[in-house]
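Inputs:
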Amino acid sequence: MNIAKDLPKISKKKKIYLKRFVSLAKKVKESFEKEEKYLEKKATRNENNNSAGFLSNI
Amino acid sequence: MRIITPPDFFQTFKDTHILLDTSAFIDAFLNPSEFGKFFNELKSHDTTLLSLDSVKIEFLKGAPTAEKYNQKIDFFDQIVDACFPMTGNVVANLYKIVQVYKEEGKSLSITDLSLGATLMQYRKGLYLLTKNTTEFPTSIFNLVSHFNISYRKGIHVYGIFNIV
C-alpha cells in the first residue's frame, strides 16, 4: 500500500525549533498538572459519595 | 535524562514513516530538549513522523481552557508531519485485529487497536514507536528496534514495531 497516497499533502519536513518547543512543553506540562489535580479532586469526591452511599445502606 | 539509541538506529529508519503513540508526546513534554533533538535527528534522515487523530484526541482531552487546548495542539503539530486519516481499509483492519489479538485484546484501548490496524494496512513501510510495549505482543508485531531512556533512577524502553 502506498502510504503517501493516503496522507494529506506534506509540503516540507518541519524541523522543531528547540527554544520554542521547550517553552511550549512547559505550558503543556502545567496543563497536565492542572488536569491531574482535577482528576484527584474528582476521585476524592466520588470516594466520599460512595462512602456516604455505603453508610446509608447500613 | 538521556536517549540512548543503537548505533544504526537513525539509518534504519531513513526514508521511512513512523507512527507515534501517546507515550511519545507525554515523554516529549516532560523532556522537550532531548526529545526535540531526537525528533530532529529522525527528520534529518527524511523520516516522516506521523500519528493518528485518536492519539491526538487522547493527548488533547482534559485541557482546562481554550488557551491550554491550543497550546497542546501547537505542541503536537510541532512534532508530527501529518495525521493518518481513518480510511475504510483501516476500519476493516480494526475488526481483523480484534480477532488476531483474541483474549489479549480485552484491555486494549481503541487507540491501541487503531495503531495496530494502521500498521496492518501499510505493513513494511510503516513503523510504530511506543513505550506501551506490553500492548503490542511479538506474536503479532515484529520488534524492529528499540531505544532506552536513561533517567537518574531507572531506564525506560521504547520499541519500534511493524507488521510484516
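The mean pLDDT of chain A is 80. Flag for discussion at group meeting.
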